[in-house]
Structure formats: structure tokens, C-alpha cells
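> example.struct
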């Protein structure tokens, strides 16, 4: 198991345009990338900061994971994502340890990247996403 870097910090928001405008005004940052990821029920905006991103997540409906998160907790920190060079071996390692995996196999996330989630009950109450990236930091699809 090897973590390459912190890929992104994800924040659940009600209004994506308002959140982007807020980050622009307060911190002078701009999204590099914005897309609807139907499989995850979100529209996401990726704001680059150094070598990482702030990921703003707007649910596509109330009956989605992020929609339920917003209903229960309101806007706020949703998950952190670590980059890994080999997602399949990372998942095998975690499975061997009995980690509480949400995804036993990779699925496709934003930017076409291979991703998988680990349940917050597994460690420190934090929802963790693993994103497979190449050595030069590009998503693997
Ligand atoms: Co994410």
C-alpha cells in the first residue's frame, strides 16, 4: 500500500454555483473542471490548490448519498481522497486487513478515474476515497 498524495478534499454543497462564487471571492480560486457524474448522483467542480483539489459536490437529487448527507448534516466536509498508484492492489491489501470497504472493486468516478470508497466506520469516522493516478498525476481510466 502506498499513498501518493492528497488528491482532493470533498465538500457537500447545496448550490454549486454559489459555492464556486464563494471560493472565487474569498480565496481567488477557479474550478478547472466541472462535470455531472451520474453514477455517483453528483455534479462536481474541481478547484486546483497546489497539487491537490477542493472538490465541491452538489447532489443530483435528495435520494442520493450526498443528498442524504446534506439532509442529515448540512453542508460540510464529506470525504478525503488519497491518490494510489495501483487501486486493485490497494483494495486487496485493505480487504486482507478486514477493512470496511464500500467498494470491493474499482468503479469509475469524476475525470474518468478509477476510484473506491472506504466506509467512515473503518477508521477515524472519515469517508475515504482512493483514486488511481499515474506517476505524473493523471487519472487512470
Ligand atoms: Co471525491
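> example.seq
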Amino acid at each position: 500500500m502506498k499513498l501518493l498524495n492528497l488528491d482532493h478534499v470533498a465538500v457537500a454543497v447545496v448550490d454549486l454555483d454559489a459555492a464556486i462564487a464563494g471560493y472565487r471571492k474569498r480565496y481567488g480560486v477557479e474550478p478547472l473542471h466541472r462535470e455531472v457524474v451520474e453514477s455517483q448522483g453528483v455534479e462536481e467542480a474541481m478547484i486546483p490548490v497546489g497539487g491537490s483539489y477542493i472538490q465541491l459536490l452538489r447532489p443530483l437529487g435528495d435520494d442520493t448519498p450526498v443528498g442524504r448527507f446534506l439532509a442529515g448534516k448540512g453542508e460540510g466536509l464529506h470525504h478525503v481522497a488519497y491518490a494510489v498508484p495501483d487501486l486493485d492492489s490497494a483494495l486487496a491489501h485493505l480487504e486482507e486487513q478486514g477493512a470496511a470497504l464500500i467498494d470491493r472493486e474499482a468503479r469509475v468516478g469524476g475525470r474518468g478515474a478509477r476510484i473506491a470508497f472506504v466506509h467512515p466506520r473503518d477508521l477515524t469516522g472519515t469517508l475515504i476515497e482512493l483514486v488511481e493516478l499515474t506517476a505524473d498525476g493523471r487519472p487512470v481510466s
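> remarks
The two ends are 20 Å apart (CA to CA).
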